[in-house]
Amino acid sequence: MAFPVNRSYNSSVPAGIQLHLSPISPRKSVSNKKLWIYDLRTNKHFTLKTNPLKREDLDEFVLLYNPANRHDRKPTWSIENPDGRWRAYD
């Protein structure tokens, strides 16, 4: 995950969280063929006081991440479903 660093947060400043699953593996014998991105921010509004990020906000990501068998991942985003958050790029 990538979090902005050295930034003071207040309720009027949006903060971004990005998760990139790199196609490059630290082990040379294992690699992904796709770059997977989960878009948590679109159509969501998190604030520190009134609507903080909670564990259940990440439940869909945890389910879709599928670390046990990453080759069976299925994207939820498509032209037909532009609201899907899980997307793969070749």
Report on this structure.
- The protein is mainly β and 90 residues long.
- It has one domain.
- 8% of the residues lie in helices and 12% in strands.
- It has one helix and three strands, in the order ββαβ.
- The protein has one helix at 59-65; strands at 19-21, 35-38, 86-89.
- A three-stranded antiparallel sheet has the order 1-2-3, with no helix packed on it.
- The longest helix is centred in the last third of the chain and has 7 residues, at 59-65.
What are the salient characteristics of this protein?
mainly beta; single chain; 1 helix; 8% helix
Mean pLDDT: 76
The side-by-side strand order for the widest beta sheet comes to 1-2-3
Helix content: under 10%
Shape estimate: globular
Low-confidence stretches: none
Strand percentage, roughly?
Answer: 5-15%
Which structural class do you get from the secondary structure elements?
Answer: mainly beta
Write the layout of secondary structure elements.
Elements: E1 19-21, E2 35-38, H1 59-65, E3 86-89
Antiparallel strand pairs: 1-2, 2-3
Provide a quick synopsis of the model.
The chain is mainly beta and 90 residues long.
